[in-house]
Write a structure and sequence with these properties.
The complex is a heterodimer. By secondary structure, chain A is an alpha/beta fold. Helices cover about 35% and strands about 20% of the residues of chain A. Chain A has two domains: about 110 residues, 3-Layer(aba) Sandwich (Rossmann fold); about 180 residues, Dihydrodipicolinate Reductase, domain 2. By secondary structure, chain B is of the alpha/beta class. Chain B is built from twelve helices and eight strands. In chain B, helix 10 links the parallel strand 6 and strand 7. Chain B is globular, with a radius of gyration of 19 Å. Chain B starts with a strand and ends with a helix. Classes of the chains: A alpha/beta, B alpha/beta.
């Protein structure tokens, strides 16, 4: 039985807690959060031991592993403390806002042979796994271009006062939404050699971005384009899509299905046919022990547990090393956006009109 | 309960197979009259129970039904609460307590509770739960709601956390205040039944995926078969077609052979499909 703690009981932490608590191989020994009322209710109704002090929890509770789901600005410090205690760590995304810190904790985890994993759950979605399988099998020949998109209805008005609306804490469309398609592109194509044309625009938010666009450049001339908007109410919930063009066809995938157009059928895929091949989630999804909000969320936690049980602490899916690549691309895009576009002489860069400060900003400043 | 219940996923752009199809459906059903037309088709085909989320737009359907009590005298709503996206988006915007305040009809209670040393007493949890239920039920005033469901996202969150007493609180309130049967939607049916039994909720109405290919039947196909055979509960099968992965005839024939199932909930957008499902059920599930 793995003894585990959950830190940070927001939207992600609470659902991780519910899923891992139902896992037959895990005992949730403690939870930690700064808000007393959430802890109080959990303790009263479920009996779980609760802490408001992270250090005290690490000191007082015997643990094997930890799930960290606090705002990203707190990740590096907490992950480091947990690793130094010898705990296997599952950390929410985005991993570390400072890439140097990300590299340091990656090194510690590797030195200690601990399992490290970051919650890029799209790598556990059947349709996106199918894309990876198809690319590895050379289905569409040489890849020329990838379009990675994500849209959804998160910030729909100029209001809101949680950490998710502040880039300094790891909030914003780039960190919260764009990180996912970027992570998928990293999985499919590896690390880019450069980025360009990055746009981080605010639509409603005062302290962060709501839409993200940009281009990633790869060795050999391949490119990927990112188009992300979390202020798009035409989507019912977050929708992530990948389109990949290659010399032998095209792949399109979202959470529900994977559509492949093949010009010729490669020998590696004898079950496929020339032209369109479509497979659906019902067919691509492996069963999970407990379902809360999508198989992928359960599957990634089960994978974490299995890696701990197998003592596999280095080359697992979504390891710290792998998540750090996505952190790096994110910081490259921030730097690129700050630099701005090249303009004809005399023309000034467009300036977004300053919005009137809301109450929250006036009270707490920037 | 009727043997066939009409679901509402198709009206709100929920399709587990294709995002394109989901979008086409939300365009088609943008006008509430298009929803009402399909409900009328179902009603006239003898499918008289509408199992629906407490989505804002359902309030318009309720208004329509209330305006013509004679025509809809046999029409029943089975409300399923809450419409989770509404709350999830609010939590992202305002944080947990901010969201709670936004949906509470009376802010006084939660403010008082929070002032009391940031600690919520048991009666406060009961109070908040029942007030949230009442807020969701407002739109159904004056209409028949013989069964009231707790949605799977909430049921399974509470189940995973081990917060099982909440099921009891919900069941008691629904019985007392609305004279209705409590229902529970889940993706983890065998596990939920153990929890409900533990809470002394007898012969509960439980709606879960039950289909021939085992799609989203967590705990495993065999555990579902075993639970259906051995436990005392009123099962509703949903996702019997597994989002279209099983041909209709094969899907219905199989479900009708399973023991202990009282109803099937299904969605359809055309009168033809409603009639086909009804005919299949009449054929394979003789009275």
């Amino acid at each position: 039985m793995i003894r585990l703690a959950v830190v940070g009981l927001g939207k992600m932490g609470l659902s991780h807690h519910a899923m891992i608590n139902a896992h037959p191989g895990v005992k949730v020994a403690a939870v930690c959060d700064t808000t007393g009322y959430v802890l109080d209710v959990l303790n009263k109704y479920t009996g779980v031991q609760t802490f408001t002090d992270f250090e005290a929890m690490l000191r007082d509770v015997a643990l094997d592993a930890i799930i960290i789901a606090t705002p990203s600005s707190m990740h590096a410090q907490m992950v480091k403390a947990a690793l130094e205690k010898g705990l296997h760590v599952f950390c929410e995304k985005p991993f570390c806002l400072d890439t140097a810190e990300g590299e340091e904790v990656t090194r510690i985890a590797n030195e200690k042979g601990l399992v490290s994993q970051v919650g890029y759950h799209y790598r556990f979605v059947g349709a996106f796994q199918e894309v990876k399988r198809l690319l590895d099998a050379g289905a569409i020949g040489t890849i020329t271009h990838v379009l990675a998109e994500a849209y959804g209805p998160v910030v729909l008005k100029p209001k809101g006062g949680t950490w998710r609306t502040q880039r300094a804490h790891g909030g914003g469309c780039l960190y919260d939404y764009a990180a996912h398609p970027l992570n998928l592109v990293n999985w499919y194509l590896g690390m880019p050699i450069g980025v360009g044309g990055s746009v981080l625009n605010s639509i409603f938010s005062q302290e962060t971005d709501d839409e993200v666009f940009g281009t990633l450049y790869y060795e050999g001339g391949q490119s990927a384009q990112i188009s992300v908007n979390w202020s798009d109410e035409s989507y019912r919930k977050m929708s992530t899509k990948i389109t990949i063009w290659g010399t032998n066809g095209r792949i399109y995938a979202d959470r529900q299905e994977c559509q492949v157009f093949l010009r010729e059928v490669p020998e590696s895929l004898p079950d496929f046919q020339k032209g369109w091949n479509v497979r659906y989630t019902t067919d691509l999804t492996e069963p999970v022990w407990f379902y809360l909000r999508g198989e992928e969320y359960s599957a990634q936690l089960d994978y974490f547990v299995r890696c701990i049980e197998a003592g596999n602490g280095s080359d697992n899916v979504n390891s710290f090393a792998s998540a750090s690549e996505t952190d790096k691309v994110i910081s490259m895009m921030i730097a690129d956006a700050e630099q701005g576009a090249s303009f004809a002489s005399g023309a000034a860069q467009p300036v977004v009109a300053k919005q009137k400060k809301g109450l929250m900003t006036s009270l707490f400043g920037r | 309960m009727d043997r066939l219940l009409f679901g509402d996923n198709q009206f709100f752009g929920v399709n587990h197979m294709s995002e394109e199809k989901a979008r086409a459906q939300s365009m088609r059903f943008q006008d509430i009259q298009a929803v009402i037309d399909v409900l009328d088709n179902a009603y006239d085909e003898g499918v008289k129970t509408f199992m629906c989320t407490t989505h804002d737009r359902i309030a318009l359907v309720c208004d329509h039904m209330r305006a013509d009590p004679e025509r809809y005298k046999d029409f029943h709503f089975y409300p399923c609460m809450p419409y989770a996206h509404k709350y999830a988006n609010a939590v992202t915007e305002d944080g947990m307590i901010g969201a709670l305040k936004r949906f509470m009809p009376d802010e006084g209670l939660i403010n008082a509770a929070l002032r009391g040393g940031m600690s919520l007493a048991k009666k406060d949890i009961e109070g908040i739960t029942t007030l949230l239920v009442d807020a969701e039920m407002k739109m159904f005033a004056g209409l028949s709601t013989p069964v009231i469901f707790l949605q799977n996202v909430v049921v399974d969150l509470l189940l995973g956390l081990g917060f099982k007493e909440a099921f009891r609180i919900f069941a008691d309130h629904v019985k007392k205040r609305y004279n209705a049967e409590p229902g529970f939607i889940t993706m983890n049916m065998p596990m939920l039944l153990d929890a409900l039994e533990e809470q002394g909720i007898e012969n509960p109405i439980v709606c879960s995926n039950i289909n021939k290919i085992g799609f989203r039947m967590c705990g495993g196909f065999e555990a579902y078969e075993q639970t259906l055979k051995t436990k005392k509960f009123r099962a509703i099968a949903m996702s019997v077609y597994a989002s279209g992965a099983i041909p209709p005839k094969e899907a219905i024939e199989w479900v009708c052979q399973q023991p202990n199932i009282e109803s099937i909930v299904f969605g359809a957008s055309s009168r033809g499909n409603i009639r086909n499902t009804k005919e299949l059920v009449d054929r394979y599930w003789p009275k």
